[in-house]
């Protein structure tokens, strides 16, 4: 598998690009997983049961389940993750260890589906891989060993020519490169990212007079080099009215005339530039910021607008919107998706609920493959 | 103003005026040469800048013409613009960015005939915006113009031109340019003192900031697309000279000049003070010696080893003093002779007074020759008259002998007289020492007079150390050569209380004494006696240390001439 984008190993639970999303998903150890159709599948738990009141769920871990680094996983580890504030926010009341393989989780709703979220994943042993350009994930269960390679110069076409089995990309040029080559099969993945224009409270709106729909179409057609479409509802951002940062940074009276976007996101750059081009303010500029600086700027909300990429679907809207300024105006712009380029005959793949590929190595139910 | 002060001021001015003139000349010449050099460099910079502008205009025009020719024959451009084919739209949107990079431009925009942006290289996503004023104003200028526009994230200043081409009935314009600041300001920035800046009239121009002098301003057509109202304007290329370097150089020169001036002034003041003091001191000493000369004090020495004018003056004063001394001696001799005449008359009168009773007694006795029996009786009666007259005459003789000692010059052995004086002085155990030079030549003097001089001096010295356990009186004799003649020096030194300068000034005056029982005539008489012997008296004293009296007498001095000249 080739990774064409830079990987930041310190944020396995908060991936910011397709390479991180694909890589970390292979390492995350959740009790369950949910496929792209919403079906719940075993994760590190191979079975579970619920009491008659549908409140106490007992999960049994698979025999010999281990962390990616090789250390054995104990129910105590899972209970520790579920007992935190993330668990409370997701509706988990408590979790307790039953024995060496079982733990009991108390909560309302579909607890097995809730526990498939990356927020409740166990992660360990990733830091040692950080400096490597090529590394292996050992075979596990029916899944084969996976060899990951960082793309040289960030161009996955070199890896494709070098015999790679899987590339996940948003670059149409890469897809066009393998188009017509019989050894590769291209799969358009679900629309997974929505780009929004976030304007803090008090900033004058940047929406052009032609209207949001016209803007979305223009953006999707001409402004970005990606597989894009005008953003389509439903938007989970509509449910974030009560969400936002617990502590608000002080804001300037007059916001800086900037449309800020993450520096490494070319789609966000195209959107920001188009927004600036259509604005009446000749002083308005785009401002590319590094990922960390972008998060800080978004929290401070001192600029006219921010172009933010958000997952198209989430189980925890408020968790996604935790760093946004309260009361911000949100305009969904476009949806984008990735394309999986798979060498014919390579290991079977499946899709998670959020459109992320997972190398399963086994024939699962069929429809999610 | 004293001679010394005038001399001091003259010396200081003699040093400072040439130095000031030198500093002024150096500074003026330095400024003139720097100005000339800057003028030359500025002319070169203006020529280079003008040539750069012209060359840049031609280069941009050539590139735009090449791009226009290519687009006029491009099928994809024709399909995208004339036919509006959607499949070629992305090619059209991305065209300017690629062409801009390939052609080395920093600004490129393709517009249709109504001014709609079809493709923009420096701002890819500003497509479809209407901006007809840019090609219109550039066409009005007719050549290179400075254009301020924006990219997505910053502002760009370009040297831009416009070109156009036709496809069918559709006319398209190309606006392209190169980055202005790098082309215009970059080369000049290599010169650390001269710099080129742009004045866009959009606020305080940094090129006109303090610390810089504007040397030349070159006008340049200017279009500001970020202004609220876009209209033709004129910017200026401003060539400035940093005053920092020049001022630093001037400050450095001034600082070193002030340091040199301060050192020179200090050295000049010290040198002038020392020199003026050295020049004026002999004159002051001469004046001081001359001030105390009178007929009774002609013992000042004006001897000098100097060969200059001051030495000559000193010798002249010495010669004058010597003449005064001779004249004084002659005057005293005349006075003495007059006094002797008076004395002779007085003696004659006094003797006659004494002889009168004797003569009367003798006459009386002569009358008794005829009656010898009465002779014894009369003698007895008149005997007292005879004796009283004789006593009177003896007293008279003794008194006159005391009043006027005899003056009999002749070669005198000074060492022998010193020995006699020491034997005769009652010194009551005082430590008396002598350092008498052997083979001392005799002096021409009256022996009695010389003895009285030494008795007086030694007596004073012994009195001064009386009662002092460490009191010591030293008598020294030696000879010396001065002015071609041999002189004998007698020194009487004591370790007594010494004298203050005020006491020394009065010591030779009549009736001045520091001794309770003194008459105040001793040293005054000694001085006159020494002068009579054509000698000098020199007294050196210091309170608490003692007194050293030197008597200088001529050896083999010719006998005093009798009578007038």
Report on this model:
The complex is a heterodimer of chains A (369) and B (565). Chain A has helices at 18-27, 75-82, 85-90, 111-114, 156-161, 172-178, 212-223, 266-278, 291-300, 317-320; strands at residues 2-3, 32-34, 40-42, 45-50, 56-61, 92-97, 102-107, 134-137, 146-150, 166-169, 184-199, 228-230, 256-262, 285-289, 303-311, 329-343, 349-351, 357-359. Chain A is α+β, with helices and mostly antiparallel strands. Chain A has ten helices and 18 strands. In chain A, a hairpin with a 5-residue loop joins strand 4 (45-50) and strand 5 (56-61). Mean pLDDT of chain A is 85; it is low at 364-369. In chain A, the strands form five sheets. In chain A, strands 10, 11, 12, 13, 14, 15 and 16 form a seven-stranded mixed sheet that branches. A four-stranded antiparallel sheet of chain A has the order 4-5-7-6. A three-stranded mixed sheet of chain A has the order 1-9-8. Chain B has helices spanning 3-72, 75-81, 89-103, 133-141, 180-188, 243-291, 309-367, 375-403, 414-424, 447-465, 501-506, 522-532; strands spanning 107-111, 117-120, 145-150, 155-167, 170-179, 194-199, 212-224, 232-242, 409-412, 431-436, 443-446, 472-482, 485-494, 536-542, 546-554. In chain B, the strands form three sheets. Chain B has an eight-stranded mixed sheet with strand order 2-1-5-4-3-7-8-6. In chain B, 25% of the residues are buried. Chain B has twelve helices and 15 strands. Classes of the chains: A alpha+beta (369), B alpha+beta (565). At the A-B interface, helix 7, helix 8 and strand 14 of A face helix 3 of B.
């Amino acid at each position: 598998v080739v990774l064409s984008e830079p990987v930041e190993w310190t944020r396995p639970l908060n991936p910011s690009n397709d390479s991180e999303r694909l890589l970390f998903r292979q390492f995350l150890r959740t009790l369950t997983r949910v496929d792209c159709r919403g079906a719940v599948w075993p994760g590190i738990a191979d079975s579970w049961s619920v009491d008659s009141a549908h409140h106490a769920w007992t999960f049994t871990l698979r025999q010999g389940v281990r962390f990616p680094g090789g250390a054995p996983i104990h129910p105590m580890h899972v209970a520790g993750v579920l007992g935190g504030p993330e668990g409370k926010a997701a509706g988990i009341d408590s979790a307790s260890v039953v024995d060496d393989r079982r733990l009991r989780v108390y909560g309302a709703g579909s607890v097995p589906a809730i526990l498939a979220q990356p927020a409740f994943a166990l992660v360990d042993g990733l830091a040692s891989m950080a400096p490597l350009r090529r590394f292996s994930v050992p075979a596990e269960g029916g899944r084969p060993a996976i060899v990951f390679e960082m793309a040289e110069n960030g161009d996955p076409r070199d890896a494709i020519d070098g015999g790679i089995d899987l590339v996940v990309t948003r670059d149409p040029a890469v897809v066009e490169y393998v188009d017509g080559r019989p050894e590769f099969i291209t799969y358009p993945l679900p629309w997974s990212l929505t780009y929004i224009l976030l304007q803090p409270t008090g900033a004058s709106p940047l929406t052009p007079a032609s209207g949001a729909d016209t803007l979305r179409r223009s953006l999707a057609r001409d402004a970005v080099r990606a597989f894009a479409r005008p953003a389509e509802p439903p938007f989970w951002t509509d449910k974030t009215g009560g969400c936002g940062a617990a502590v608000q940074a002080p804001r300037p009276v007059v916001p800086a005339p900037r449309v800020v976007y993450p520096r490494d996101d070319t789609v966000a750059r195209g959107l920001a530039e188009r927004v600036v081009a259509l604005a009446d303010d000749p002083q308005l500029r785009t401002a590319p910021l590094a990922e960390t600086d972008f998060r800080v700027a978004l929290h401070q909300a001192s600029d006219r607008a921010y172009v933010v990429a958000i997952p198209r679907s989430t189980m925890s809207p408020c968790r996604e919107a935790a760093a946004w300024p309260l009361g911000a105006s949100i305009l969904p712009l476009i949806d984008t998706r990735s394309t999986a380029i798979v060498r014919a005959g390579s290991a079977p793949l499946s899709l998670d609920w959020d459109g992320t590929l997972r190398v399963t190595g086994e024939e699962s139910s069929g429809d999610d493959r | 103003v004293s001679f010394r002060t005038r001399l001091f001021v003259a010396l200081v001015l003699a040093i400072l005026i040439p130095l000031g003139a030198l500093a002024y000349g150096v500074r003026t010449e330095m400024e003139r040469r720097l100005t000339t050099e800057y003028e030359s460099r500025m002319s070169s910079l203006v020529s280079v800048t003008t040539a750069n502008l012209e060359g840049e205009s031609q280069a941009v025009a050539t590139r735009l013409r090449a791009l226009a020719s290519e687009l006029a024959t491009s099928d994809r451009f024709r399909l995208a613009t004339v036919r509006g084919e959607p499949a070629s739209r992305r090619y059209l949107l991305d065209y300017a960015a690629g062409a801009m990079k390939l052609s080395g431009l920093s600004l490129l925009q393709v517009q249709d005939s109504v001014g709609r942006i079809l493709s923009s290289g420096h701002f890819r996503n500003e497509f479809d915006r209407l901006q007809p004023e840019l090609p219109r104003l550039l066409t009005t200028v007719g050549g290179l113009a400075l254009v301020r526009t924006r990219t997505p994230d910053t502002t760009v200043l370009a040297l831009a031109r416009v070109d156009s081409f036709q496809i069918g009935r559709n006319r398209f314009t190309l606006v392209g340019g190169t980055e202005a600041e790098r082309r215009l300001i970059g080369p000049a920035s290599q010169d650390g003192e001269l710099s080129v800046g742009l004045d866009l009239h959009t606020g305080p121009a940094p090129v006109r900031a303090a610390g810089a002098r504007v040397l030349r301003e070159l006008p340049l057509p200017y279009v500001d697309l970020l202004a609220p109202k876009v209209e033709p304007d004129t910017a200026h290329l401003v060539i400035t000279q940093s005053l920092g370097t020049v001022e630093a150089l001037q400050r450095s020169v001034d600082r070193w000049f002030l340091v040199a001036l301060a050192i020179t002034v200090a050295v000049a003041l010290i040198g002038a003070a020392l020199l003026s003091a050295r020049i004026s001191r002999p004159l002051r000493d001469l004046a001081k010696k001359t001030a105390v000369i009178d007929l009774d004090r002609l013992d000042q020495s004006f001897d000098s080893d100097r060969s200059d004018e001051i030495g000559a003056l000193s010798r002249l004063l010495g010669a004058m003093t010597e003449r005064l001394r001779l004249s004084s001696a002659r005057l005293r001799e005349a006075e003495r002779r007059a006094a002797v005449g008076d004395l002779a008359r007085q003696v004659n009168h006094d003797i006659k007074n004494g002889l009168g009773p004797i003569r009367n007694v003798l006459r009386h006795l002569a009358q008794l020759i005829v009656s010898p029996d009465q002779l014894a009786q009369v003698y007895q009666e008149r005997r007292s008259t005879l004796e009283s007259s004789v006593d009177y005459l003896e007293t008279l003789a003794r008194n006159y002998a005391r009043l006027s000692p005899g003056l009999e010059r002749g070669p005198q052995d000074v060492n022998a007289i010193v020995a006699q004086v020491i034997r005769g002085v009652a010194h009551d155990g005082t430590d008396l020492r002598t350092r008498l030079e052997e083979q001392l030549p005799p002096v021409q003097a009256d022996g009695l007079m010389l003895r009285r001089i030494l008795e007086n001096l030694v007596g004073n010295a012994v009195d001064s150390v009386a009662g002092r356990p460490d009191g010591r009186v030293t008598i020294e004799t030696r000879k010396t050569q001065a002015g071609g003649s041999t002189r004998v020096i007698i020194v009487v030194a004591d370790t007594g209380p010494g004298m203050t300068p005020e006491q020394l000034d009065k010591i030779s005056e009549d009736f001045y004494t520091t001794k309770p029982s003194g008459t105040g005539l001793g040293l005054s008489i000694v001085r006159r006696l020494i002068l009579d012997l054509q000698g000098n008296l020199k007294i050196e004293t210091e309170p608490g240390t003692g007194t050293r009296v030197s008597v200088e007498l001529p050896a083999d001095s010719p006998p005093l001439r009798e009578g007038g000249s």
